Amino acid sequence: MKNSDDERAAEPDTSCPPWALREYAVLADGERGAVLDPGGRIVWLCAPRWHDDAVFSALIGGAGHFTVEPTDPWHVWGGSYEEGTLIRVSRWVTSGCVIECREALAMPSRTDRLVLLRRMRAERGEARLKLDLDPRPGFGEFRMREPRREGGVWTAEAEGLRMRLAGAPDAVWRDPAGLCGDFRLGEGETHDLVLELSTQRETEPLDADALWRATEREWRQAVPDCSRLVAPRDARHAYAVLRGLTSVSGGMVAAATTSLPERANSGRNYDYRYAWLRDQCYAGLAVAAHGPHPLVDDAVRFVAERILADGDEVRPAYTVDGRPVGPERSLRLPGYPGGNDHVGNDAGAQFQLDTFGEALQLFAAAAAHDRLTEEARRAAILSVDVVERQWLKPDAGLWELEDRWWTHSRLGVVCGLRRMAEVLPGKDGRRCADLADTVLRETRRRCLLPDGRWRRAEDDDGPEAALLVPMARGCTFGDHHDAATRAYIESRLTEDGYLFRFEHRGESLGEAEGAFLLCGFTMALATHRVGDRVGAFRWFERTRAACGPPGLFAEEYDVRQRQLRGNLPQAFVHAMMLECAVRLAGESTLP
């Protein structure tokens, strides 16, 4: 939806020019995420939580940013995450010095308060940096009011948010630009900035050393050892991303951002700052394959709560505190280049049958680790009830398209029912097995072609990468059917070693959309399941290469331009990458 002529978008903030998506890094603490560009500008941050309005929205053309950058424009940038964390170290090399800036959202986090840490250090030579802090709540609509400096700490407030900044006592507040200052560091010197945004009036000291120690401790405890896995550093990074996107409620957002375009000027840009139950199940299953880590319990709890609360009316997506996602609406912002600005998501009102199949598989995986709570067991039985009533009904499917009789949705339900049949005792287990047989029998009748492969939907014979998901999960429907379907998908949906979702009528692969990274990792798992280890590693390594310098995956990848497309970091891509790292190493604790 474009802005009308009488509701013209504001001019973008030219002090924060956009970068290619592959260059951005993300800081996250479970309750919100900050997007950081290579120049040292934090250009996106919602406060106090994921689904709330942005206070820094320069990423999509709005006002608000937090910049720490070298004063010398003649520099090159770099940086990396500290392994197993979302602590980022930005690095700039000028003609006379090397500067590093360590950055993180402080942990443990609170839902009503965020703390952003930035520690500057002159690694070599004398460093000069400048500060530019311009918080703008309401997606840039409001300015902070009543700025004042007390005891060396700046304070201000607007729209229910209270700001404190420690570490810049000599900075100057210049309306309308915000807080401006500069720093000079001798070789080896460090300097801390601590930014707090809270809905409460906070009084505790902003002690940078204590906050850094607590944050480091939280990350050490949160991310398990992955040294026995394939690509252990990337596996730990994937786990850190999943942890950073997961709230104390257990809900995991699909991505930290909104409105980053999947295809320029096509209208395909959406708000992903919500918890999709399917994505949550993918993440829970990936982590469970490695072991009974806390993210498994988080996924089980959040999914079970939503199913028990809503039953037949379960939504595909919720806010992380379990509330419905509002309908899509446009803001009066320019948007990231090639995109429009959106908040809300119309998919929140769809019916997606496969969500129940994935939930049943998650509950079965929890049971395998003796982590199936009584609440989750009740949610599993209710899921079976819903499937029994709804499986013949058309649904929007994995890709959230029009309601049709999608093959993947039915096969996903069969997988879930089969897994739960092995877990639930007595008549409940037999009921799952019988219902799985019934659904599979009718799906064969409607969706199995004479040559043995599965068609995309009852009324569509085309290739569909979603059909790889049951194979990746080890749920087989006959070796011939699996082999024929996988071979057909590979023959029709591959370009240069990357995999696309499906064919768009009248358009070649890569013209309508990018390669779908979830599908590439799923193909690696499906190929591994049929015993082709070399082929599985080929798919894994090719897809693993489709990230930017920070090692973050978006949803899609433009194969020809080697660029990321869509919101980031995309949780379910990192989840599937982690599962590949586990299973290809032969370390899975699940079948």
What does this structure look like?
The protein has 591 residues and is α+β, with helices and mostly antiparallel strands. It is built from 13 helices and 25 strands. The protein has helices spanning 208-222, 232-244, 277-290, 294-310, 354-368, 374-390, 407-421, 426-447, 468-472, 479-492, 517-529, 533-544, 571-583; strands spanning 25-28, 33-36, 41-46, 54-56, 65-70, 75-81, 88-94, 98-105, 113-124, 127-134, 145-150, 153-158, 161-166, 172-174, 178-185, 190-198, 275-276, 317-318, 329-330, 342-343, 494-495, 498-499, 515-516, 556-558, 563-565. The strands form 6 sheets. Strands 1, 2, 3, 4, 5, 10, 14 and 15 form an 8-stranded antiparallel sheet that branches. A hairpin with a 3-residue loop joins strand 7 and strand 8 (98-105). Helix 7 runs antiparallel to helix 8 (426-447). The longest helix is centred in the last third of the chain and has 22 residues, at 426-447. The protein is globular, with a radius of gyration of 24 Å. The protein starts with 24 loop residues before the first strand and ends in an 8-residue tail after the last helix. Mean pLDDT is 95; it is low at 1-6.
